[in-house]
Specification:
By secondary structure, this protein is an alpha/beta fold. The chain has eight helices and eight strands; from the N terminus they run βαβαβαβαββαβαβαα. α5 packs parallel to α6.
């Protein structure tokens, strides 16, 4: 079953409330919270995303999918744990060594939250293998993290396929999420490769009808009923 995590990065100012209610009514599976600190990535969305996440939590029971693109992971976990996210994902590249990765995994779990690890396009997927038994999700970035509206990097399809093969061969229970350039054209490719959670932002928010696009993104491969 494919799920959709809608990125709220490009929500228009002044339309937050209307957009969040409409997304929930359209059955998005998660609100995707893109947290950037202006250091790990160029853009800084930290305070805005904290405000948005807090607001969503007040008006909705929909799960929050928090993606930390930050250097100070522990502080961000402390800040965003307050909004009771379903899952917090941090970047493998933000940790200096294996010890810090495991400490971060355990710290997030101590905050009663599922754990995800994300990898940038230039990071070999094999680097995350040793941590898969301890986490709930692996997020494969299909664009360079830091801004919305980028085009999908087609070479990431093979990375998703390789990860899925490893997970199946080792009988692991873990979600594969993809983030970056996901739309109706690229979604079938990543779903076929093995991704089961798709992050989409502009593709959904620029649509006339959120529910139509969300339903189409969820549609199983080969389903011609639409």
């Amino acid at each position: 079953m494919v799920e959709i995590s809608t990125s709220i990065l490009s929500v228009k100012k002044g339309e937050e409330s209307k957009t969040f209610f409409a997304l929930e009514a359209s059955k998005t599976d998660y609100f995707h919270i893109d947290v950037m600190d202006g250091k790990f990535v160029e853009k800084n969305t930290y305070q805005t995303m904290l405000e948005y996440a807090s607001y969503i939590r007040r008006i909705s029971n929909a799960p929050l999918d928090v993606h930390l693109m930050v250097e100070d992971i522990k502080k961000a976990v402390d800040d965003f744990s307050a909004v009771e996210p379903n899952i917090i994902t941090f970047h493998l590249e933000a940790c200096k060594d294996e010890k810090e990765v495991m400490e971060t995994i355990n710290y997030i779990k101590q905050n009663n939250c599922k754990v995800g690890i994300s990898v940038k396009p230039n990071t070999n997927i094999e680097e995350v293998y040793q941590y898969l038994p301890y986490i709930h999700m692996c997020l494969v970035m299909t664009v360079e993290p830091g801004k919305g509206g980028q085009s999908y990097l087609s070479e990431m399809t093979e990375k998703v396929r390789t990860l899925k093969k490893y997970i199946d061969e080792n009988q692991l229970e873990i979600d594969i999420e993809v983030d970056g350039g996901i739309n109706l054209k690229t979604a079938p490719e990543v779903k076929k490769a093995g991704a089961n959670i798709l992050v989409a932002g502009t593709a959904i928010l620029n649509a006339v009808d959120y529910k139509v696009i969300i339903d189409e993104l969820k549609c199983p491969i080969g389903d011609v009923s639409l």
